[in-house]
Amino acid sequence: MFNHTDIETKWKSRWNTIRQNSTDVKDTKKKFFNLMMFPYPSAEGLHVGNMYAFTGADIFGRYKRMCGFNVFEPIGLDGFGIHSENFALKIGRHPMDHALVTQKKFYAQLHKIGAMYDWDKTLETYDPDYYRFTQWLFVEMFKHGLAYRKRAEVNFCPGCKTVLADEQVIDGKCERCGNNVTKRSLEQWFFRITAYAEKLLENIPALHWSHIVKTAQTNWIGKKEGINITYKVVNRDHKYVFDLICFTTRPDTNFGATFVALSPEHEIISQILTVINQDQSKKIKQYIKSVSQITSEERAQEGRKKTGVFTGLYCQNDLNGKLMPVYISDFVLMGFGSGAVVGVPGHDKRDFEFAREFDIPVIRVVKTANNDGCITHIDDVQEDEGIMMNSGFLNGMDIHKATAAMMDHMEKMGWGKRVSTYHLRDWLISRQRYWGPPIPMIFCKYCFTKGITYSEESAFSDMAGWFPVPNGQLPVLLPRIEDYRPGDDSIAPLAKHTEFYEVKCPHCGGDARRETDVSDTFLDSSWYFLRYPSLGERKKEKGKREENILPWDQKITKKWLPVDMYTGGAEHSVLHLMYSRFVTMALHDWGYLDFEEPFPNFFAHGLVIKDGAKMSKSKGNVVNPDQYIDLYGSDALRLYLMFMGPFSQGGDFRDSAMEGMKRWVNRVWNLSVQSIDKHSQTGNAIVEKALQKLIKKVGDDIEARHYNTAIASMMEWTNLTAENGGIVRINQLSSFVKLLAPFAPFVTEEICEKIHASVVGGKWSVEDSIHRQKWPEYDEKALMDESVQIVVQVNGKLRDVIEMGSIAAKNRLLVEQETKSLEKIKPYLSNTKVRKIIFVPGKLINFVI
Predict the structure, then answer these.
(1) Distance between CA atoms of residues 168 and 564, nearest Å
(2) What is d(CA 354, CA 575) in angstroms, rounded to the nearest whole number?
(3) What is the CA radius of gyration of the chain?
(4) 3-state percent helix, strand, coil for the chain, nearest multiple of 5
(5) Per-residue pLDDT at 839
(6) From CA 820, how far away is CA 806, in angstroms rounded?
(7) pTM of the model as a whole
(8) pLDDT digits (tens, 9 = 90+) for 252-266
(9) What does the alpha-carbon distance between residue 101 and residue 79 come to, in Å, rounded to a whole number?
(10) What is the pLDDT of residue 619?
(11) How distant, in Å, are the alpha carbons of 62, 688, 709, 718 from that of 715?
């Protein structure tokens, strides 16, 4: 029996001693940066879902190294943020202390799985030497006009007691704790990711990512082509008060516009309240308060009763001179267009429902061959193709020509401007929590009153009094405080500590206040891949000031990045991946990087479930891998996780199946020991031919991440050896063990050492490791297909026999083409109709005429 405990202990110790997996980043010949999304340590340790992801990525890296690549595979901990902090709060341990506990535990577990991590280059996001540069990145964003502070309606999670970015709200709930998210008006820091919306979108087609991830990013960016129409707003006395901009993709229907509706969050509402009477103002405030607790998802539900309040103001439709009442309604969302819609109830069902609720006229301006009458029911609403009517110069045009003609007309008249809008909103960075990098900004009241800004550029016009912490003073250290628990008041714990926030203004030297919010954990992970290769390599240049040092060595970064293969979960499609792309693009534009896409190749792995559900502590179905490693060994666990199903899909973890995988590892061990002992010089031709096919199959499967079928094929080969004597030649065993090595690093290393002692003799060295050996090559001749005979029938009677390769003989189309062209068959098929073709792969084809 294979004693996995002794063997794994032996090889972990030896690999660490010889630094087996340390990568010389100065050697960039055939470099391969193999990276997996690093874990966030929310609890005491990793579960098998984490191990599944890491194992799948590690197999690919090990394979690439055996193919001759200089593979760099680092690991670290995304330890700042709400995940770690919430668990620390739950168990009553200070987040700083908890970070050290989980760091020790996580790294011990990661050592156990036998991954080829470069343990000389680990990073933790809570290390001041790391978050110093997270703060540097924030400062750079501010200096380049991409970071700003403003009051806004934001998502607030009452469970996590902090604000959330739009991307962190799933179906109206916090993606972390599942609580319903509410809206609050707060002063917050934002990154101007919308400035990169078009670039983020246009780069997607060239990325080697799965279709589902690319689609998710495309949909989240949500580009729409349309026109911003500027309407003059008047009061009841027809007196002009201000302009209002409405975005629409269907201006062709604007002759049928009968009202305008604003989102309750629209910023122009504050202006509206100043020009209407108190009674109307009171009604508006009451309405906005009543809908503030309703989620965007609920507001967008189809068929939901439409609510709203009249503002007392009107928009003038310049096309026909008619006045359209302006309402505030919760069916309008700020996340779409300009947050103001022009209502055309004859050609939009939601507009129709609102119009019916408030007795607003409905006008048809698009007709079809079957319908051109009055619109009295929602089924009469025409949203699709049609011909224009009741629309002046557009009459008779189809809607597409009419849309272009209307846009031309509005631009010519100065009423509108063609624009692209995006669903993507600026990245909300502020968090009213403790466990994170303090935002490195300082506010000076004196400079604010004097209108002094960091720069005279327009991007800083609303940022009077705000200045970044000078780079030479970074990091702004997170102090250890004991009252770190967040409250319901949306005020960060650091705001209670004068010793932290009372500072001097970097501009005038007067009394100032440091920002007390910390930054979003996704900022920590938006750039970590840039840091890895330079860990321990970044040197301070002679005479260069400390504040000018970059987070990475530029020469090393130029050679090693972007990442060659990135592996992670598809659930991060519009969080981590989007943010990392944005940050990389910005750094590229500032001249710090010579590439703008961090992950040209991304593989989205599947999800491990237990008892049919995603693993979570709340469901009580989290599986700790340690017990399985202790009982069955790391190799058996790695193999089982990859055998459960396609790596891109995941599978259901079942305890009972682990025993079977352990038995197969023992069979491989026994086959190896017996073959080494016998040292047979004679081989079986069937086994050899199957081995050559196996070499090609496993290589192809690993490249495609079809790990489950690769393992299945290796199992078939060991079954074949058992049927043919139970032992193999040493060179056959050596080739097979190399195929298995990426999947099962411990048992294959032990077998390799035994082969070395038997064949070569002498002391084993690092160069003898199976993980440093070359991936086996297959014999093309051995793959040549055997021939089989195909019986050719017409109406069930034998008419000919054709010889083909066994693989081609299973292809119906090829067999059909070949047999129809046979001289003996042509006469039967000419001038007649083939009613049916019966095909038995590899054996028979029968034409029924």
Answers:
(1) 28
(2) 35
(3) 34
(4) 40, 20, 40
(5) 96
(6) 19
(7) 0.84
(8) 999 999 999 999 989
(9) 11
(10) 65
(11) 20, 15, 10, 5
CA pair distance 188, 439, nearest whole angstrom: 11
Can you give the pLDDT at residue 348? 93
Q: 32: which strand partners? A: 71
Contact partners, residue 368, CB within 8 Å, separation at least 6:
382, 385, 386, 387
Q: Which two tokens stand for residue 4?
A: 């996995």
Tell me how far apart the alpha carbons of residues 43 and 41 are, in angstroms, rounded to a whole number: 6
Chain length of the chain: 849
CA atoms within 13 A on the CB side of 447: 24
pLDDT for 512-535, tens place per residue?
A: 999 999 999 999 999 999 999 999
Q: Minimal CA–CA distance to 524: which of 123, 826, 33?
A: 123
Distances (CA, A) of 545 to 138, 467, 541: 20, 21, 8
Cα→Cα distances 123→21, 46, 301, 540, 634, Å: 16, 17, 44, 19, 24
SS3 802: strand
Give the single-character DSSP code of 236.
Answer: T
pLDDT given for residue 785 in this prediction: 67
**Strand (E) or helix (H) holding 11:** helix 4-18
Q: What pLDDT does residue 813 have?
A: 86
CA 372 to chain centre: 47
CA of residue 469 relative to chain centroid, distance:
32
Q: What totals of helices (H) and strands (E) does the chain contain, helices first? A: 27, 34
Residue 848's beta-bridge partner residues?
836
Residues 6+ apart with CB under 8 A from 564: 31, 32, 33, 34, 601
Cβ proximity of 563 and 529 under 8 Å: yes
How many angstroms separate the CA atoms of 183 and 292, rounded? 6
**Closest C-alpha to 393, from 409, 378, 382, 380:** 409
Say whether 590 sits in a helix, a strand or coil: coil
For 722-736, what is each residue's pLDDT tens digit?
998 889 999 999 999
Res 544: pLDDT: 45
The Cα 139–Cα 745 span in angstroms is: 44
Identify residue 13 by its one-letter amino acid code: S
What is the separation, in whole angstroms, between the first and last Cα of the chain? 62
In a 13 Å sphere around the CA of 626, the CA atoms on its Cβ side amount to: 11
Q: Are strands 182-191 and 427-428 parallel, antiparallel or unpaired?
A: antiparallel
What three-state secondary structure class fits 239? coil
**Planar angle of CA 75, 77, 78, nearest 5 degrees:** 125
At residue 543, the pLDDT reads 41
Distance between CA 222 and CA 313 in Å, rounded?
A: 31
Half-sphere exposure of residue 62: CA atoms within 13 angstroms, side-chain side: 27
CA atoms within 13 A of residue 183's CA, in its CB half-sphere: 18
CA–CA gap between residue 243 and residue 229 (Å, rounded): 10
Q: How far apart are CA 171 and CA 160, in angstroms?
A: 17
Q: Helix, strand or coil for residue 725?
A: coil
pLDDT < 70 stretches in the chain: 167, 176, 335-337, 538-548, 616-620, 785-786
- The residue assigned the tokens 């302009």 is 243
Rounded to whole angstroms, the Cα distance separating 490 from 186 reads 8
What's the rounded Cα separation, in Å, for the pair 516 and 498? Answer: 10
Identify the CA nearest to 315 among candidates 330, 327, 332: 327
CA atoms within 13 A of residue 794's CA, in its CB half-sphere: 16
Rounded CA-CA distance 326/643 in Å is 61
Whole-angstrom CA distances from 86 to 79, 105, 130, 169, 812 are 12, 18, 22, 18, 60
Per-residue CA distances from 175 to 38, 491, 776 (Å) = 19, 21, 46
Beta strands in 79-165 (DSSP E): 122-124, 147-157, 162-164
Q: What are phi and psi of 152, to 5 degrees?
A: -155, 155
